[in-house]
Structure formats: C-alpha cells, structure tokens
Amino acid sequence: MYLHLGQNTIIHSKEIVGIFDLDVCTVSKITREMLTEKEKQNHIVTVSQELPKSFVLCSRKKNKKIDFEEVIYLSQLNSATLLKRMESLKDS
Prior knowledge:
The model has no long low-confidence stretch (mean pLDDT 91). The protein has a 4-stranded mixed sheet. The protein has a two-stranded antiparallel ribbon with strand order 1-2. It is built from 3 helices and 6 strands; from the N terminus they run E-E-E-H-H-E-E-E-H. It is 32% helix and 37% strand. The protein has one domain (2-91).
C-alpha cells in the first residue's frame, strides 16, 4: 500500500520508518544533526514549496541490492494527517 505525502508524491508504506512533526522534533540537537547530514548527502526530498510541517523517514533498498539507504521526505501536511492516512491504509 502507498501513502500520499502531498502534491504528486507517494511512497510505499513498507519503506516508512517514522512520521515526525518538524516543530517538535527539531528541538533535539540529534535530530537537527541528522537532518543536516541527510541534506549534505542529498537524501532529502521536498514534497511541496510550502513550509514543511512534518518529515517522513524512509528506508529503501539501494539500487536493488541488499544495502539500504535512508531518505527523508519533507511534507507540507501535518504529521497527524499523515498518521490518519496510514491508519486508514491498515483498515482497508
């Protein structure tokens, strides 16, 4: 099943590690460092030009190999909205 993150971006629900609120999580120094590192690695995908409210941490196979890479999607949707969408996927 797939989760719609906004605009024309969808991701497979099996890739999702977590859905996080940007305002709450960026208080932590560790989270800010992780986001900075992923940005340097070009592993951040901005879903919309609007101000992001949440981020989705995903882990996916790297070039169809055993190796995995982490990708972060910045979404203009609230984390609660994305969580409700995830729950509706489980119910269907």
